[in-house]
Design goal:
3 copies of one chain form a homotrimer.
Chain A: E1 4-9, H1 14-29, E2 33-38, H2 40-44, H3 65-74, H4 80-90, E3 93-98, H5 99-105, E4 118-120, H6 122-129, E5 134-137
Parallel strand pairs in A: 1-2, 1-5, 2-3, 3-4
Chain lengths: 138, 138, 138
Protein backbone atom coordinates (compact mmCIF):
# COMPACT_ATOMS: atom_id res chain seq x y z
CA UNK A 1 0.00 0.00 0.00
CA UNK A 2 1.33 3.43 -0.94
CA UNK A 3 2.07 6.09 1.66
CA UNK A 4 -0.69 8.64 2.03
CA UNK A 5 -1.29 12.36 2.58
CA UNK A 6 -4.75 13.20 3.97
CA UNK A 7 -5.89 16.81 4.17
CA UNK A 8 -8.94 18.49 5.64
CA UNK A 9 -9.37 21.66 3.57
CA UNK A 10 -11.45 24.07 5.63
CA UNK A 11 -10.00 27.40 4.41
CA UNK A 12 -11.19 29.12 1.27
CA UNK A 13 -8.81 32.02 0.74
CA UNK A 14 -6.61 31.95 -2.36
CA UNK A 15 -3.37 31.93 -0.39
CA UNK A 16 -4.41 28.94 1.75
CA UNK A 17 -5.63 27.01 -1.29
CA UNK A 18 -2.23 27.23 -3.00
CA UNK A 19 -0.55 24.83 -0.55
CA UNK A 20 -3.42 22.37 -1.09
CA UNK A 21 -2.42 22.07 -4.73
CA UNK A 22 1.30 22.23 -4.13
CA UNK A 23 1.38 19.71 -1.27
CA UNK A 24 -0.72 17.36 -3.39
CA UNK A 25 1.74 17.68 -6.28
CA UNK A 26 4.67 17.09 -3.97
CA UNK A 27 3.07 14.01 -2.45
CA UNK A 28 2.21 12.57 -5.86
CA UNK A 29 5.78 13.19 -7.03
CA UNK A 30 6.94 11.11 -4.04
CA UNK A 31 4.60 8.27 -5.01
CA UNK A 32 2.09 8.97 -2.26
CA UNK A 33 -1.70 8.71 -2.49
CA UNK A 34 -3.64 11.83 -1.57
CA UNK A 35 -7.11 12.15 -0.05
CA UNK A 36 -8.67 15.59 0.33
CA UNK A 37 -11.75 16.40 2.37
CA UNK A 38 -13.30 19.72 1.36
CA UNK A 39 -15.41 21.34 4.06
CA UNK A 40 -16.92 24.72 5.03
CA UNK A 41 -15.19 27.64 3.22
CA UNK A 42 -12.80 25.24 1.50
CA UNK A 43 -15.69 23.38 -0.10
CA UNK A 44 -17.28 26.63 -1.30
CA UNK A 45 -14.12 27.43 -3.27
CA UNK A 46 -14.80 24.33 -5.39
CA UNK A 47 -18.40 25.24 -6.24
CA UNK A 48 -19.11 25.93 -9.92
CA UNK A 49 -20.34 29.37 -8.90
CA UNK A 50 -17.00 30.34 -7.34
CA UNK A 51 -14.89 29.60 -10.44
CA UNK A 52 -13.40 32.58 -12.18
CA UNK A 53 -13.87 34.88 -9.19
CA UNK A 54 -10.80 37.03 -8.47
CA UNK A 55 -8.53 35.39 -5.85
CA UNK A 56 -9.15 36.67 -2.33
CA UNK A 57 -6.17 36.59 0.03
CA UNK A 58 -6.31 36.35 3.84
CA UNK A 59 -6.86 39.78 5.38
CA UNK A 60 -3.94 39.07 7.74
CA UNK A 61 -1.53 39.57 4.86
CA UNK A 62 -3.30 42.42 3.11
CA UNK A 63 -0.02 44.36 3.02
CA UNK A 64 1.79 41.65 1.04
CA UNK A 65 -1.19 40.36 -0.96
CA UNK A 66 -1.04 42.70 -3.98
CA UNK A 67 2.64 41.89 -4.49
CA UNK A 68 1.92 38.15 -4.27
CA UNK A 69 -1.09 38.41 -6.58
CA UNK A 70 0.99 40.23 -9.19
CA UNK A 71 3.79 37.66 -9.03
CA UNK A 72 1.31 34.78 -9.45
CA UNK A 73 -0.07 36.49 -12.54
CA UNK A 74 3.27 37.52 -14.06
CA UNK A 75 4.76 34.06 -13.65
CA UNK A 76 1.59 32.30 -14.85
CA UNK A 77 1.46 30.22 -11.69
CA UNK A 78 -1.30 27.63 -12.16
CA UNK A 79 -4.31 27.99 -9.87
CA UNK A 80 -4.87 25.47 -7.08
CA UNK A 81 -7.64 23.87 -9.15
CA UNK A 82 -5.31 23.54 -12.17
CA UNK A 83 -2.54 22.11 -9.98
CA UNK A 84 -4.93 19.56 -8.48
CA UNK A 85 -6.19 18.58 -11.91
CA UNK A 86 -2.63 17.95 -13.07
CA UNK A 87 -1.82 15.97 -9.91
CA UNK A 88 -4.90 13.79 -10.50
CA UNK A 89 -3.58 12.90 -13.95
CA UNK A 90 -0.24 11.86 -12.50
CA UNK A 91 -1.25 10.07 -9.34
CA UNK A 92 -3.89 8.69 -7.05
CA UNK A 93 -5.70 11.77 -5.73
CA UNK A 94 -9.24 11.63 -4.37
CA UNK A 95 -11.30 14.71 -3.52
CA UNK A 96 -14.37 14.48 -1.26
CA UNK A 97 -17.07 17.04 -0.50
CA UNK A 98 -18.26 17.18 3.13
CA UNK A 99 -21.88 16.03 3.28
CA UNK A 100 -22.60 18.01 6.45
CA UNK A 101 -21.62 21.32 4.84
CA UNK A 102 -23.65 20.39 1.76
CA UNK A 103 -26.71 19.52 3.86
CA UNK A 104 -26.43 22.78 5.81
CA UNK A 105 -26.26 24.87 2.66
CA UNK A 106 -28.65 22.77 0.59
CA UNK A 107 -25.93 21.92 -1.92
CA UNK A 108 -25.75 18.92 -4.24
CA UNK A 109 -22.76 17.16 -5.81
CA UNK A 110 -23.64 18.81 -9.15
CA UNK A 111 -23.02 22.23 -7.57
CA UNK A 112 -19.30 21.48 -7.49
CA UNK A 113 -16.71 21.19 -10.23
CA UNK A 114 -15.84 17.73 -11.55
CA UNK A 115 -12.57 17.74 -9.62
CA UNK A 116 -14.71 16.57 -6.70
CA UNK A 117 -14.91 12.79 -6.93
CA UNK A 118 -17.53 11.99 -4.33
CA UNK A 119 -19.26 13.13 -1.17
CA UNK A 120 -18.21 11.83 2.25
CA UNK A 121 -19.20 12.19 5.87
CA UNK A 122 -16.57 13.25 8.36
CA UNK A 123 -16.52 9.77 9.92
CA UNK A 124 -15.84 8.23 6.52
CA UNK A 125 -12.99 10.63 5.95
CA UNK A 126 -11.53 9.99 9.39
CA UNK A 127 -11.56 6.31 8.49
CA UNK A 128 -9.54 7.06 5.34
CA UNK A 129 -7.16 9.38 7.23
CA UNK A 130 -6.36 7.00 10.08
CA UNK A 131 -3.76 5.12 8.04
CA UNK A 132 -2.29 8.22 6.36
CA UNK A 133 1.37 9.09 6.96
CA UNK A 134 0.82 12.83 6.83
CA UNK A 135 -2.40 14.50 8.01
CA UNK A 136 -2.99 18.25 7.74
CA UNK A 137 -5.81 20.72 8.46
CA UNK A 138 -5.62 23.68 6.12
CA UNK B 1 -5.14 0.20 21.76
CA UNK B 2 -7.67 2.26 19.83
CA UNK B 3 -6.68 4.52 16.94
CA UNK B 4 -6.34 8.16 17.93
CA UNK B 5 -7.05 11.68 16.68
CA UNK B 6 -4.95 14.39 18.38
CA UNK B 7 -5.74 18.06 17.76
CA UNK B 8 -4.03 21.28 18.78
CA UNK B 9 -6.83 23.85 18.89
CA UNK B 10 -5.22 27.26 18.55
CA UNK B 11 -8.03 29.13 16.73
CA UNK B 12 -10.94 30.71 18.53
CA UNK B 13 -13.33 31.85 15.80
CA UNK B 14 -16.73 30.17 15.63
CA UNK B 15 -16.17 28.77 12.16
CA UNK B 16 -12.85 27.13 13.08
CA UNK B 17 -14.31 25.67 16.27
CA UNK B 18 -17.05 23.83 14.37
CA UNK B 19 -14.64 21.33 12.80
CA UNK B 20 -13.18 20.65 16.25
CA UNK B 21 -16.56 19.31 17.37
CA UNK B 22 -17.41 17.63 14.10
CA UNK B 23 -14.04 15.90 13.63
CA UNK B 24 -14.22 14.68 17.23
CA UNK B 25 -17.71 13.23 16.59
CA UNK B 26 -16.54 11.57 13.40
CA UNK B 27 -13.51 10.05 15.09
CA UNK B 28 -15.60 8.75 18.02
CA UNK B 29 -18.09 7.24 15.54
CA UNK B 30 -15.17 5.35 13.99
CA UNK B 31 -14.10 4.02 17.40
CA UNK B 32 -11.13 6.33 17.75
CA UNK B 33 -9.91 8.04 20.91
CA UNK B 34 -9.59 11.82 20.75
CA UNK B 35 -7.18 14.11 22.59
CA UNK B 36 -7.59 17.86 22.29
CA UNK B 37 -5.04 20.46 23.37
CA UNK B 38 -6.62 23.91 23.78
CA UNK B 39 -4.16 26.78 23.49
CA UNK B 40 -4.04 30.53 22.87
CA UNK B 41 -7.31 31.83 21.30
CA UNK B 42 -8.74 28.32 21.20
CA UNK B 43 -8.39 28.01 24.97
CA UNK B 44 -10.09 31.37 25.53
CA UNK B 45 -13.19 30.09 23.71
CA UNK B 46 -13.59 27.53 26.50
CA UNK B 47 -13.40 30.03 29.35
CA UNK B 48 -16.56 30.39 31.43
CA UNK B 49 -16.56 34.09 30.56
CA UNK B 50 -16.75 33.41 26.81
CA UNK B 51 -19.87 31.22 26.96
CA UNK B 52 -23.03 32.71 25.51
CA UNK B 53 -21.14 35.33 23.51
CA UNK B 54 -22.40 35.66 19.92
CA UNK B 55 -20.36 33.51 17.49
CA UNK B 56 -17.60 35.46 15.76
CA UNK B 57 -16.58 34.22 12.32
CA UNK B 58 -13.19 34.68 10.64
CA UNK B 59 -12.93 38.08 8.98
CA UNK B 60 -11.66 36.33 5.84
CA UNK B 61 -15.17 35.07 5.15
CA UNK B 62 -17.12 38.13 6.28
CA UNK B 63 -19.09 38.03 3.02
CA UNK B 64 -20.42 34.51 3.63
CA UNK B 65 -20.59 34.65 7.44
CA UNK B 66 -24.11 36.08 7.88
CA UNK B 67 -25.54 33.40 5.58
CA UNK B 68 -23.72 30.66 7.49
CA UNK B 69 -24.72 32.08 10.87
CA UNK B 70 -28.37 32.13 9.82
CA UNK B 71 -28.26 28.55 8.56
CA UNK B 72 -26.68 27.35 11.81
CA UNK B 73 -29.49 29.03 13.75
CA UNK B 74 -32.36 27.91 11.48
CA UNK B 75 -31.22 24.30 11.46
CA UNK B 76 -30.48 24.28 15.20
CA UNK B 77 -26.94 23.09 14.58
CA UNK B 78 -25.40 22.27 17.97
CA UNK B 79 -22.51 24.49 19.06
CA UNK B 80 -18.96 23.08 19.11
CA UNK B 81 -19.18 22.85 22.92
CA UNK B 82 -22.46 20.89 22.71
CA UNK B 83 -21.02 18.61 20.03
CA UNK B 84 -17.93 17.94 22.14
CA UNK B 85 -20.08 17.22 25.20
CA UNK B 86 -22.09 14.66 23.23
CA UNK B 87 -18.92 13.08 21.83
CA UNK B 88 -17.54 12.73 25.36
CA UNK B 89 -20.63 10.78 26.37
CA UNK B 90 -20.17 8.40 23.46
CA UNK B 91 -16.43 7.89 23.37
CA UNK B 92 -13.01 8.45 24.85
CA UNK B 93 -12.41 12.19 24.43
CA UNK B 94 -9.94 14.11 26.57
CA UNK B 95 -9.64 17.90 26.58
CA UNK B 96 -6.54 19.64 27.94
CA UNK B 97 -5.88 23.30 28.69
CA UNK B 98 -2.40 24.59 27.79
CA UNK B 99 -0.56 25.52 30.98
CA UNK B 100 1.68 28.05 29.22
CA UNK B 101 -1.28 30.08 27.95
CA UNK B 102 -2.87 29.89 31.41
CA UNK B 103 0.34 31.05 33.10
CA UNK B 104 0.69 33.95 30.67
CA UNK B 105 -2.86 35.15 31.27
CA UNK B 106 -3.00 34.30 34.98
CA UNK B 107 -5.80 31.77 34.42
CA UNK B 108 -6.75 28.79 36.57
CA UNK B 109 -8.46 25.52 35.68
CA UNK B 110 -11.65 26.86 37.35
CA UNK B 111 -11.78 29.66 34.78
CA UNK B 112 -12.75 27.11 32.12
CA UNK B 113 -15.92 25.10 31.55
CA UNK B 114 -16.06 21.55 32.88
CA UNK B 115 -15.56 20.15 29.39
CA UNK B 116 -11.86 20.74 30.07
CA UNK B 117 -10.57 17.62 31.81
CA UNK B 118 -7.12 18.69 32.88
CA UNK B 119 -4.23 21.03 32.24
CA UNK B 120 -1.18 19.94 30.26
CA UNK B 121 2.15 21.31 29.11
CA UNK B 122 2.97 21.22 25.43
CA UNK B 123 5.58 18.49 25.99
CA UNK B 124 3.00 16.33 27.73
CA UNK B 125 0.62 16.79 24.83
CA UNK B 126 3.30 16.03 22.27
CA UNK B 127 3.90 12.81 24.16
CA UNK B 128 0.20 11.91 23.80
CA UNK B 129 0.13 12.93 20.13
CA UNK B 130 3.19 10.95 19.05
CA UNK B 131 1.23 7.72 18.76
CA UNK B 132 -1.89 9.30 17.22
CA UNK B 133 -3.00 8.24 13.72
CA UNK B 134 -4.32 11.65 12.77
CA UNK B 135 -2.81 14.90 14.06
CA UNK B 136 -4.22 18.34 13.19
CA UNK B 137 -3.52 21.97 14.07
CA UNK B 138 -6.71 24.01 13.93
CA UNK C 1 15.30 6.38 15.02
CA UNK C 2 13.78 9.15 17.14
CA UNK C 3 10.12 10.09 16.89
CA UNK C 4 9.48 13.13 14.74
CA UNK C 5 7.34 16.27 14.53
CA UNK C 6 7.04 17.72 11.02
CA UNK C 7 5.41 21.11 10.50
CA UNK C 8 4.49 23.10 7.41
CA UNK C 9 4.61 26.74 8.54
CA UNK C 10 2.48 28.73 6.13
CA UNK C 11 1.21 31.47 8.48
CA UNK C 12 3.18 34.59 9.27
CA UNK C 13 1.26 36.35 12.03
CA UNK C 14 2.95 36.66 15.40
CA UNK C 15 0.28 34.67 17.22
CA UNK C 16 0.52 31.71 14.81
CA UNK C 17 4.31 31.73 14.95
CA UNK C 18 4.34 31.32 18.74
CA UNK C 19 3.08 27.72 18.61
CA UNK C 20 5.79 26.92 16.04
CA UNK C 21 8.43 27.72 18.65
CA UNK C 22 6.56 26.23 21.57
CA UNK C 23 5.60 22.96 19.84
CA UNK C 24 9.21 22.59 18.71
CA UNK C 25 10.43 23.06 22.29
CA UNK C 26 7.92 20.57 23.59
CA UNK C 27 8.86 17.99 20.99
CA UNK C 28 12.59 18.43 21.69
CA UNK C 29 11.91 18.07 25.43
CA UNK C 30 10.25 14.73 24.65
CA UNK C 31 13.30 13.57 22.66
CA UNK C 32 11.68 14.03 19.28
CA UNK C 33 13.33 15.32 16.10
CA UNK C 34 11.67 18.32 14.47
CA UNK C 35 11.54 19.29 10.79
CA UNK C 36 10.03 22.62 9.80
CA UNK C 37 9.09 23.65 6.27
CA UNK C 38 8.70 27.43 5.96
CA UNK C 39 6.51 28.54 3.08
CA UNK C 40 4.54 31.55 1.82
CA UNK C 41 3.85 34.07 4.65
CA UNK C 42 5.59 31.84 7.17
CA UNK C 43 8.82 31.98 5.19
CA UNK C 44 8.63 35.76 4.91
CA UNK C 45 8.64 36.02 8.73
CA UNK C 46 12.14 34.50 8.67
CA UNK C 47 13.58 36.94 6.15
CA UNK C 48 16.34 39.20 7.45
CA UNK C 49 14.20 42.18 6.45
CA UNK C 50 11.31 41.13 8.68
CA UNK C 51 13.38 40.93 11.89
CA UNK C 52 12.67 43.58 14.48
CA UNK C 53 9.30 44.51 12.97
CA UNK C 54 6.55 44.90 15.58
CA UNK C 55 4.57 41.65 16.01
CA UNK C 56 1.36 41.60 13.95
CA UNK C 57 -1.47 39.50 15.33
CA UNK C 58 -4.28 37.86 13.34
CA UNK C 59 -7.05 40.35 12.63
CA UNK C 60 -9.56 37.75 13.86
CA UNK C 61 -8.44 38.38 17.42
CA UNK C 62 -7.93 42.13 17.21
CA UNK C 63 -10.00 42.56 20.38
CA UNK C 64 -7.67 40.39 22.49
CA UNK C 65 -4.41 41.17 20.70
CA UNK C 66 -3.32 44.28 22.66
CA UNK C 67 -3.78 42.41 25.94
CA UNK C 68 -1.78 39.44 24.66
CA UNK C 69 0.94 41.67 23.23
CA UNK C 70 1.32 43.45 26.58
CA UNK C 71 1.54 40.17 28.49
CA UNK C 72 4.22 38.85 26.15
CA UNK C 73 6.24 42.01 26.74
CA UNK C 74 5.73 42.20 30.52
CA UNK C 75 6.67 38.57 31.05
CA UNK C 76 9.62 38.74 28.63
CA UNK C 77 8.27 35.83 26.64
CA UNK C 78 10.95 34.87 24.10
CA UNK C 79 10.03 35.41 20.44
CA UNK C 80 9.36 32.40 18.20
CA UNK C 81 12.80 32.91 16.61
CA UNK C 82 14.50 32.92 20.03
CA UNK C 83 12.54 29.82 21.10
CA UNK C 84 13.52 28.00 17.91
CA UNK C 85 17.16 28.98 18.38
CA UNK C 86 17.14 27.56 21.90
CA UNK C 87 15.41 24.38 20.74
CA UNK C 88 18.08 23.92 18.06
CA UNK C 89 20.78 24.02 20.75
CA UNK C 90 19.00 21.33 22.73
CA UNK C 91 17.79 18.98 20.05
CA UNK C 92 17.65 17.90 16.45
CA UNK C 93 15.69 20.66 14.73
CA UNK C 94 15.94 21.34 11.01
CA UNK C 95 14.41 24.38 9.29
CA UNK C 96 13.85 24.44 5.51
CA UNK C 97 12.89 27.30 3.21
CA UNK C 98 10.40 26.46 0.45
CA UNK C 99 12.14 26.78 -2.91
CA UNK C 100 8.90 27.47 -4.77
CA UNK C 101 8.09 30.52 -2.65
CA UNK C 102 11.70 31.71 -3.01
CA UNK C 103 11.59 31.29 -6.80
CA UNK C 104 8.30 33.17 -7.02
CA UNK C 105 9.61 36.09 -5.01
CA UNK C 106 13.15 36.03 -6.36
CA UNK C 107 14.60 35.27 -2.94
CA UNK C 108 17.90 33.59 -2.09
CA UNK C 109 18.96 31.59 0.95
CA UNK C 110 21.02 34.62 2.10
CA UNK C 111 17.81 36.65 2.39
CA UNK C 112 16.83 34.59 5.42
CA UNK C 113 18.20 34.45 8.95
CA UNK C 114 20.72 31.73 9.81
CA UNK C 115 18.06 29.75 11.65
CA UNK C 116 17.13 28.45 8.20
CA UNK C 117 19.34 25.43 7.57
CA UNK C 118 18.63 24.71 3.93
CA UNK C 119 16.20 25.09 1.07
CA UNK C 120 13.84 22.28 0.09
CA UNK C 121 11.16 21.54 -2.47
CA UNK C 122 7.75 20.48 -1.27
CA UNK C 123 8.32 16.91 -2.52
CA UNK C 124 11.53 16.68 -0.52
CA UNK C 125 9.73 17.87 2.58
CA UNK C 126 6.86 15.45 2.04
CA UNK C 127 9.48 12.72 1.90
CA UNK C 128 10.82 13.81 5.30
CA UNK C 129 7.32 14.14 6.76
CA UNK C 130 6.05 10.72 5.67
CA UNK C 131 7.69 8.96 8.62
CA UNK C 132 6.87 11.67 11.18
CA UNK C 133 4.67 10.83 14.17
CA UNK C 134 3.03 14.23 14.33
CA UNK C 135 2.38 16.38 11.25
CA UNK C 136 0.87 19.86 11.44
CA UNK C 137 0.02 22.71 9.05
CA UNK C 138 0.27 26.04 10.82
Amino acid sequence: MADKLAMVVFSGTADRLFPVGVLTSGAVAMGMDVEIFLTFWGLQAFSKKAQGAPPKFSTDYADMAPMFAQVLKEKNVPSPVETLRKAKELGNVKVYACTMTMDLLGQKKEDFIDLVDATAGVGEFMDKARDANVTLFI
